[in-house]
Structure formats: structure tokens, C-alpha cells
Design brief:
The structure is a homodimer of 216-residue chains. With 216 residues, chain A is mostly helical. The first copy, chain A, has nine helices and no strands.
Chain lengths: 216, 216
């Protein structure tokens, strides 16, 4: 049974509807991000997400056309949050060693600040390094960008004279990444309460070894 | 149709049959190891392995009772190979810095020496850190053992006087792991031809910073 005619419908508030849709999309991405951080992105199916959200699969499909679109949007959301929480605030520190240090400490803390149980970007790197395709391309792009930003900050610390002129920014970025990776292993595999302290020690040693003029 | 009776069967050569069984098991584990290194251990189903081996699922079940048994046996096989290729040969180096260096360089090279496209232990660590259960326990045990062996080698290098007395072996192991992790990312995500060179640079800097007497 259906009513003969809709009773003089109000014009749809288009702006408001869009906001509601954006809200739903954001809520789906938040759930997806939490799930992918610890379970990986292959476990991120439209079905699993629909159940988590109490939505129909078709409702979810309206926001993300395919599993791959959902995976990529989730990874992009991870990068967006890292940028907001870990990168932008570091730019408030003055150029030079202070900014390098701010970048590192915020990187170390960003998952906690984002209330994530693990790093969704590192998870994607582990899962897709050996699988060519859009997910691999996306994670490579995000990680490369972070490497470049660290290199840029290190270059500025060389320019301010705080780091030695022969400092190799790409080597520092390589080592900084390793410290973060080891910190994650200490945190998540060993449940080591000193994981962050070890990472900060390692970082200060890394910086100190570039402050000392090289002996040749 | 079946023959009425087997024609005077030879007594089964039990020893040979066992060897054949062991060979099959080893071949399955080899295929499993290659698959898990790049695709992860959840992708390691009895079905996938049976297809790879051209065996029936029940034939595979005769060797590994369950998917989990197969996963654990594969991870144990990874640790066994690492020990054979990366650890035992390092013990030929004299105690002290030479052994620390041998441990590190063989660690860096072990996947290549084992003809593996990636590290199956690091893969397990990424996949199971957040999933309590036997796989998580197994990978934690293997990684802890490696950390302890590195710490022991560092302690001996302190005892020989090659490293400074205030060297913290657990911190060195933490940082060495990070260098390896960053090397894997450079190799597999960035296809960086200088990945190993960067790792060796980082390791030499790590060693050098512990050879210098601390300034207090």
C-alpha cells in the first residue's frame, strides 16, 4: 500500500543532506581505519564494514564502490590524520633541529594521539610491498612523501648550522624510519613499556652523531 | 575393477618411506615459506598449498593436521633457516665486534642467501602482533631469541673492550632491528638499490657511537 501523492514536500536541504552523507562516510572510514590498523586491509571487506556500522552492504556501496576503493580511501584517511596530528603541528617548531625533533616525536606519538591501536600506514606497507597495484602505489606515495619531509627538515637543520654539513638527509630519514619501526615492534610484539624511551634514545644518538664534526 | 590380490608384496622399506615422507614435508614447507614471505600466513591455506604442490588436500592434511599447524611449522622452518644461514655461520667469527658485525651482515643477507623474496619472520611479526594466539606466541619467541643473541654478542664486545663499558646491549639490539626493518622497506617498498648500503652505513654509525668513550 502506498499513499497516492506526497503531501507538498519541502524542498530538500541539499547542503544538510551532503553533510549527513559526509558524516556517514567519515564514520565508515573511522571504523575501517581501526580495523585495518590491526587486521590489515585485505580483511577490510564491504561485508565486515557493513556489519560494524549496522548498515546494509548496498548502503556502504553507495559510499565506496568497491573493496579496493574502500581500502584506498582508508589509507588516504590514515595519511590525512597523520598529516593533521603528526606533521602540521611540527611545522610550528622553528626551522632547524627543533623542527626535526618535533617531527620525530609527533611521528612517535601520532597513533596514540589518533587513538589508533597501531599504525595503519606501516600496516599497509607490510601488507602491500609485494603486491603490485593501486594499494601498493598509494602506500609508497605516502611513505615517500614522509621521507621527503624529513629530508627537508634535516636539510634546514644543516642550513642553520645545527647539523654537520656532510649530513646525508636521506640516510637520516632511513634511520629515523627504522627507529619508528623498531619502536612499533617493541610496543606491539613485546609490549615493552620502554619502547618510546628506547626510540627517543636512538633518535638523540642519531642527532648527536651528526652534530659532531666528522673525523677524517 | 580391481585385481584380486596384490602379487606377493615386497616388505615395505620403512626407513626409505619415512625419508620420502620427510622430503614431501620439506617440499611443502618450502612452498609454504615462499608463499607466506610475500602473501602472509593467513593466505596460507591447506587448499592453496595443495594446489601449489599438485597434491590432494587430504594428502596435505596427512602432513599438517590444520591450517594453524601448517602456519606454525612454516614459521618454525623460517627460524630454522635463519639459524642455519644467518646465525650459526656468525659464530665462526671471534667473540667481540667481529661477531657482532658478522651477525648483522648475515642478518641483512639471510633472505637472499635463502632465496626468499622477503623476510618470513618480519612478515609474521607484522601480521600477528595484534592477534593473540599460537602464531603470535611463536613469532614473539623467535624474535626475542634473536634479540637475546644480539645482546649476548654485544656484551662480549664490551667484555673484549671493543665497545664502551656503558653500552646498553638491549638498546643496540633495538636499533639493529630498526636498521633491518628500514632496509626491508627501502628494498621492498622503494626498490632502492642502495638499501643494503644504507643499512651498513647505519650499522657502522651505531657501532662507532659505542666505541667512542661517553662524554659526561
Amino acid at each position: 500500500m502506498r499513499t497516492a501523492e506526497p503531501a507538498s514536500p519541502q524542498p530538500r536541504p541539499l547542503g544538510a543532506r551532503q553533510t549527513k552523507g559526509e558524516e556517514t562516510r567519515a564514520a565508515i572510514l573511522d571504523a575501517a581505519l581501526r580495523h585495518a590498523s590491526t587486521h590489515g586491509y585485505e580483511a577490510l571487506t564491504i561485508g565486515v564494514l557493513a556489519e560494524k556500522m549496522g548498515m546494509s552492504k548496498s548502503g556502504l556501496f553507495a559510499h565506496f564502490g568497491s573493496k579496493e576503493d574502500l581500502q584506498i580511501a582508508t589509507l588516504d584517511e590514515a595519511a590525512r590524520r597523520y598529516t593533521a596530528v603528526g606533521f602540521i603541528p611540527a611545522l610550528a617548531a622553528p626551522r632547524g633541529l627543533k623542527r626535526v625533533r618535533a617531527l620525530f616525536t609527533l611521528w612517535l606519538e601520532w597513533t596514540e594521539r589518533s587513538e589508533l591501536a597501531a599504525c595503519p600506514i606501516m600496516a599497509a606497507s607490510a601488507e602491500y610491498s609485494h603486491r603490485p597495484g593501486p594499494m601498493r602505489d598509494t602506500v609508497e606515495e605516502h611513505v615517500r612523501r614522509l621521507h621527503l619531509e624529513i629530508m627537508k627538515a634535516v636539510e634546514m637543520a644543516v642550513a642553520t648550522g645545527e647539523l654537520a654539513p656532510d649530513t646525508q638527509p636521506d640516510q637520516v630519514a632511513f634511520e629515523a624510519f627504522g627507529i619508528i619501526a623498531s619502536c612499533y615492534q617493541a610496543r606491539y610484539l613485546f609490549h615493552d613499556p620502554r619502547a618510546n624511551a628506547r626510540a627517543l634514545n636512538a633518535f638523540e644518538r642519531l642527532v648527536a652523531s651528526h652534530q659532531v664534526p666528522p673525523t677524517r
